[in-house]
Amino acid sequence: MTLIRAEGLVKTYRSGEVEVQAVKGVDFAIEAKSFVSFVGPSGSGKSTLLNMIGCLDHPTGGKLSVLDRDVSTLDRRAAAEFRGGHIGFVFQDFNLIPVLTVYENIEYPLIMVQDWPEQKRRKQITRLLEAVDMSAQANKRPDQISGGQKQRVAVARALATNAELVLADEPTANLDHDTAYRIIKLMKKMRDEFGTTFVFSTHDPKIIGEAELIFTVEDGHLHQGSSHTGAGHA
Amino acid sequence: MLNVLKIALRNLARFGRRTLLTSTLITLGILSVLLFVAIAGSFKAMMIGQFTDAVLGHLEVHRRGYVASIDTLPLNLNMRPAMVEKVEEVLKKFDGIEAYSKRVKLGAMFSNFTETTSARVNGVDPEQEVATTPLLRGRVIEGIKNGVLLKPGEILIPTLLARGMNVKVGDMVVLVATNRDGSVNGKTFTVRGTMEGITGPSGRDAYIHINDARDLLRLKEPEVSEFAIRLKNPGQLDQIYAQLSQELSAVAGGGGTAGAGDKAGGAGKGPGGGGLEVHTWAALSPFSSLANMIDLLTVFVKIMLVSIVLVSVMNVMMMAVYERIREIGTISAIGTPPGRILSLFLTEGLLLGVGGTVLGTVISLAVIYGLNVWKITFNFGQQKGLVLSPAIGMADVAIIAGMVVLMALLASLQPAWKASRMDPVRALGHV
C-alpha cells in the first residue's frame, strides 16, 4: 500500500523579488511500513520535503497525497488535525517540553491533541516507555536526561497517538555516532513493533545504510537510491 | 481543560521570578484600589453623615421656588397649615422615614444692644429637630449641652457670630425681623450655647424655638418653611425621594396661597408638584460635588489599576510567547489544534490575573478588618475622635476583582492569538 505519493511536487520560496525553488518537480512514492531516508547536503531540500509530507508546509505545485488524502490544500486547522491524527514528529533538537516529565511529554499529544481516557493513556505510555527503554526515567525532566535519552522520549512521543507515519528531520544530528546508531536502530525496531512508516532525513553517511529506501536530494531534485539493510554501522 | 490548566501552571512556575513579580504587581494594585475604595467610601459616608445628621437631614420638602430663592428666605413661600397637614399625612405613610422636623426659616438683624449684624435663623421644634438631625447637639461647643436642645426664649448661635459680636453664653440678645407685611418686630433671647459652623446652606444658622420664630414673624397660623426628613436607611434615599415626589405631587396646592406676593402657590408640575418640591441632601449641599469628586477619583484609580494589569500581563505574555516560539512550533507540529494553543496561553494570563487578584483581595480584606479592629480616629472640625471605619461591599470587591481578571484575559488575548497563528515551520526554525 502506498502511504505517500508525490507527483511533480514543487516548492518555491519568495523573499521580496527573489524566488528560490527548493523542490523542483519531484515524483516519489513511499510504501506503508517502510523505513525511508532522504539524504543530501544542507540546503538540498530534505527538510522542505519532510515539511510538506508532514503538512507543516504547502507545496507550490504538483500533487501530494498522504494516506490517500490530498494534503496540499489543507488549511491550518485541517492540517493540524491531520498531523495530530496520523503523523508523529522527531526533531533534531528533541523539542521536548521542558516543564513536563518524560512521562508527561509522551502523554502530551494524548491529552492536548487527542483526548484519550486516563487508563488508556497510562497503558499506552507504559508500553512506549518500555519499548524505548525509558521506564526508569519516567519521572525525570528533560534537563535531567542525556541527549540520546531525550531522542528516545521524542520517538515514544511521536508514536504515542499510534501514528501511521513518523517524520524525523535530522534525528541524529545532535548525537554522537553510537547514540545516533542506537536511535536509528530504535526507530527501526519501532517500525517492526508498531508497523509505523518512518521517514527521516540525514546527511550522516554512517547511518544512511540503515534505511531500506534512500532518496538522494540534490539541489531540489530527487534520485531514488538502492536499498540497504544494516550496512551502515561498523 | 484540567490538563491545559496543569500545563499552564507549570509554565508559570517555569518562569517563577517573572510570574511572582507580575502577580505581586497585580496584588499591590488590587490592594491599593480596594483600600482606597474602602477608606474613601468610609470617609465619604462619614462626611455625608455629618451634613445629613447635623444640618440638612436626608431630604427636604419646600414650596416650589423656595430653594431657588433661599438666599432671601422668602416668607411668602412658606407652607400654610393646610399644606403642612397634607405633607405630614404623606410623611407618616412612609415606613422608611424615621423622623421629620418642621422649620421656619428667617433672616433677622442680630443685636447685642451695642452692635447689629444680619443673621439667618432656624425656628425649630427641639425634639423633632434632634430626632431628624441627631448630630446637631454635638455641634454645641459652649453652653448647655444636655436636656432639651432649646427652650422658648433661648437661642443657639454660631461661634463666628458669637465671637464677632462678643456674645457669651447667658447673654441677652435681640432678633429683629421684617414680617411678611413689611412691618418689623423684635424679640429678646438668652444665648443658650454657641455652635460649630458647617460649610453649606444652613451651616451657620442660629436656632430658636419654632414658636418664637412664629411670634417674631407675627405669623397668625403655624406656617412652615421646610420639612427636613431623616430616613431609617440612607441607602433608600433615591427610592424614597422618587416615591415622596410622586406622593407629594398629588397634594393639591391647597393652602398654597400664602399671602400677598405669593408666586408659586398651586403650581403642580415636576417633582413634588402641587406647589411642592422635594430635594435630596446632595441637591442642597455643595459637599455633593466633593462626594462626586471622590467617586470620580475612585474611577480614576480603578482605571489606573486596569492599565497596570493590562500592561504587565500583556508584557509577560508577549515575553512568554517570544521565549517559547520553538516550543509553540513543536506543539503545533505534533498536531495541537490552534484553539488549544490559544486556550493554553489565555489560561496562563488568566492564572496570573486570578492569582494576583485572590492574593490582593485576601490581603485587602485582612487590612480593612485590621483597620476596623485598631479603630483609627481623626478630627473633623469640632467633631473629635471620629473613627475611620473602612468598609467595602462584596459587590465592589466582585466588580474590581472581575475587572482585573477580565483585563488579564484581554491582555493575554493578543499574545495567545499570535501563538495560535504561528507558522510551525518558522517557529521550529526560530533561533
Describe it for me?
The complex is a heterodimer of chains A (234) and B (431). Chain A is an alpha/beta fold and 234 residues long. Chain A has helices at residues 46-53, 76-86, 102-113, 118-131, 147-159, 177-194, 205-208, and strands at residues 2-15, 18-31, 35-39, 61-66, 69-70, 87-90, 165-169, 197-202, 213-218, 221-224. In chain A, helix 3 (102-113) crosses helix 4, helix 3 runs parallel beside helix 5 and helix 5 (147-159) runs parallel beside helix 6. Chain B has 431 residues and is α+β, with helices and mostly antiparallel strands. Chain B contains 13 helices and twelve strands. Chain B has helices at 2-14, 16-56, 81-93, 126-132, 159-164, 210-217, 237-249, 281-284, 287-323, 325-333, 338-374, 394-420, 424-428; strands at 59-63, 97-111, 116-124, 140-143, 154-158, 172-178, 184-195, 206-209, 226-231, 276-280, 377-380, 383-387. In chain B, the strands form two sheets. A six-stranded mixed barrel of chain B has the order 2-3-8-5-7-6. In chain B, helix 2 (16-56) packs antiparallel against helix 12 and helix 11 packs antiparallel against helix 12. The longest helix of chain B is centred in the first third of the chain and has 41 residues, at 16-56. Chain B starts with a helix and ends with a helix. Mean pLDDT of chain B is 86; it is low at 254-274. Classes of the chains: A alpha/beta (234), B alpha+beta (431).
Helix content of chain A: 25-40%
| Major sheet: arrangement of strands of chain B | 2-3-8-5-7-6
What quaternary form is this?
heterodimer
- Gyration radius of chain A, in Å: 17 Å
Total strands of chain A: the figure is 10
Low-confidence stretches of chain B: 254-274
User: Taking Cα atoms only, what radius of gyration of chain B do you get, to the nearest Å?
Assistant: 31 Å
For the largest beta-sheet of chain B, the strand count, sense and barrel status come to: 6 strands, mixed, barrel
Strand order of the largest sheet of chain A: 6-7-8-3-9-10
- Average pLDDT taken over every residue of chain A: 89
Distance between the termini of chain B: 31 Å
Show unreliable segments of chain A.
230-234
Approximately how much beta-strand content do the residues of chain B carry? Answer: 15-25%
What fraction of the residues of chain A are assigned to beta strands by DSSP?
25-35%
- N-to-C series of helices and strands of chain B: HHEHEEHEEHEEEHEHEHHHHEEHH
Tell me the number of helical segments of chain A per DSSP (H or I, 4 or more residues long): 7
The best one-word shape of chain A is: globular
Mean pLDDT metric of chain B: 86
Coarse structural class of chain A: alpha/beta
* Percentage of residues in helical conformation of chain B: 40-55%
